[in-house]
Amino acid sequence: MLPNRSRTSVLVFLLPPLLLYCAAVLFPILQSLFLSFFSWNGISDMEFVGLANYVRMLTADDIFWRSFFNALVYLAICLVLQLGGALVVASLLTSLRRGRELIKTLYLLPAVISTVAIAFLFVRIYSIDPVGLLNQLLHWIGLGSLERAWLSDVNTVLAAVSAPEGWRFTGLYMLIIYAALIAVPKELEEAAVLDGASKWTLFTKIRFPYIRPVWITTTIMATTYGLRGFDIPYLMTNGGPGQSSELLTTYMYKTAFTSTDFGYASTIAVFIVIECLVAVGLILFMLKRKADS
Amino acid sequence: MITQTAPAQPTRARVPSPAPQRRRRKPSLYRTLSRVLIMLIVIVQVYPLAWLFVTSLRTEHDFATGDPFGLPSSLTWENYARAFETGDLGRNILNSFIVTMGANILIVLFGMMAAYAIQVLGFRLSKFVRGLFLVGIIVPVQIALVPLFIDYSAVNLLDTYQSMIIPLAGFALPMSIYLFSSFFEYIPRETYEAASLDGAGPYRIFGLITLPLSLNTVVTVVLVNSIFIWNDFIFANTFVLSEDLKTIPLGLQNYIGAMGKVDWTATFAAVCVTITPLLLVFLVLNKAMIQGLESGANKG
Fold it and tell me: Is the CB of residue A17 less than 8 Å from the CB of residue B173?
């Protein structure tokens, strides 16, 4: 604590940021919770409906459940691409002598580009008429039978809108994991190599346990970002065809701003927050317990 | 374990000795494979972007009929001219610039102030306030859309720069407070005590010691946040309706014509124009940015 500080000086420094934060983040969270107990279209009077919105969401809304499961698939694909891809590249990169900086930069490039641009790019990559990159590639490697309109096929559309989001941030997580990997003490690794440890043992017994704290952080980051994913599916398919690529976030957005059902949209928003909190809790619980055993 | 490290150290210093070099031949297959794999993944990562750029230089005819992988038969800048005609690209870039600057000023100033109050000044509820700010890292932005839309329309803030700047700054604030307070931890107590003895109060210490020392962290915070703010789609799409205020992500949507017909080459030219400013900053300052991203997550 600073010797000469006064109560006013604390308030002078703390109040402006706290006010902005309350106005933009905290108050809206409480307001969402409040709105979720009402039925309101933004124009007529608000009507208190108690838990009716929640009952409707959990028992009578097929689209909600569809979006929920879609969101889980979306999350799974993003996690595999982002964390799996990041871990593989980061480990490989540690054995590289030159060009690390260049590869790091190249790898991070997609993270700098706006989601709208990425959505455009991938719409074009997936298209079949005119033939896009993906279909052309399949044709060339002799898998022409797999060619299809990826975004209009109900079986592939969910994976097709998830992949760009995964692709976009792999570099970011790679960077974080790589920084952790090169911080693993060389002595530990050398001692293990002297004891005859294989590359795989080295990785599973030394490196990975050592970076566990960072792994937990990145898993939480990737999971919460995956659960709030919105832009790319919204822009590429708007949840379609039908509801086959609808996520909770796109469903909430449409409920709020297309159907102007503010109360019900808030209920879904509250569910998304709870989902994020539960996910973070689960990750901490699972990874901590594994570390203890 | 650690006691074993002492003898290992000198062998490492003598790397160019013949013995380890002969040993290097064995893992060379592994090394070649890993190199090939890295190259493949980098191609997957970068090729779409290179393709985007090349396409923006193709003529429409060449793009429609030619092989999508192939190199264009001729290059043209005409798409860029058409891109500027179709949309209001200049206006979009200016708007994005205003929003990014505005939000960054708030994020840096307020983030530094809050971190200073929590970390340096200290007060009874500082742990609680820090926790309050942490909530904002986990909570998804979507929760704020409906309430903010209602509040903004009540106070006539819809369709203004502020309607984008306030939530963008608010949601970025927790991370920047976190980064600033981890940095402030490393400023030695004695510096403050010495300044206090010389009669400096909390305001002067902030202005003369804390602020100048944190310039590196400021760069990091600005760079990382600029990526997200420059590219923000959801707040802009929800709170802004008029053409005049549209930022780049919204402006790009104008390129989808009626019936979903898209002028692809002009669109890609527009995309190239809009990603260039950020890309240049990124390429020039990527060391600082990479360091910031790495330390930000690794401290957690």
Answer: yes
Q: Assess: ipTM above 0.85.
A: yes
Query: Are the C-beta atoms of residues A118 and A168 closer than 8 Å to each other?
Result: yes
Selection from A69-73, B20-24, B71-75, B188-192 with the highest mean pLDDT:
A69-73
Residues 6+ apart with CB under 8 A from B189: none
Residues 112-141 of A with CB under 8 A from B: 112-117, 120-122, 124-125, 130-133, 136-137
pLDDT confidence tier of residue B19, bands split at 50, 70 and 90: very low
Work out the minimum CA distance from B265 to partner chain A, whole angstroms: 11
For A94, A103, A210, B193, B278, the CA distances from B284, given in Å and listed in that order, are 24, 15, 33, 38, 10
Comparing alpha-carbon positions, the chain B residue that sits nearest to A212 is B298
Chain B interface includes A86 (CB < 8 A): no
Backbone conformation region of residue A99, classed left if phi is above 0, alpha if psi is from -120 to 50, else beta? left
Is B122–A1 a contact, with Cβ atoms under 8 angstroms apart? Answer: yes
The terminus-to-terminus CA distance of chain A in angstroms comes to 40
**To the nearest 10°, the Cα dihedral for B122, B124, B130, B135?**
-170
Q: What is the pLDDT of residue B14?
A: 43
Single-letter amino acid, residue B5: T
- List Cα–Cα distances, B156 to A5, B147, B161, B236, B250, in angstroms: 39, 14, 12, 16, 21
Whole-angstrom Cα distance, residue A134 to residue A161?
Answer: 14
pTM metric for this prediction: 0.86
Chain A nearest-CA distance from B27, in A, is: 10
Give me A110's structure tokens: 């997609």
Are A164 and A232 in contact by the 8 Å Cβ rule? The answer is yes
Query: What per-residue confidence (pLDDT) applies to A270?
Result: 93
In this structure, what are the phi and psi dihedrals at residue A48, rounded to the nearest 5 degrees? Answer: -70, 125
Q: Give the pLDDT of residue B18.
A: 47
Q: Is the pLDDT of residue B124 over 60?
A: yes
Interface contact flag, A27 B147, Cβ < 8 Å: yes
CA distance B214 to chain A (A): 16
Question: What rounded mean pLDDT belongs to chain B?
Answer: 81
Residues facing residue A48 across a β-bridge = A38
Put simply, whether B31 touches A (Cβ < 8 Å) is yes
Are the beta carbons of A120 and B271 separated by less than 8 Å? yes
CB pairs under 8 A between A and B: 294
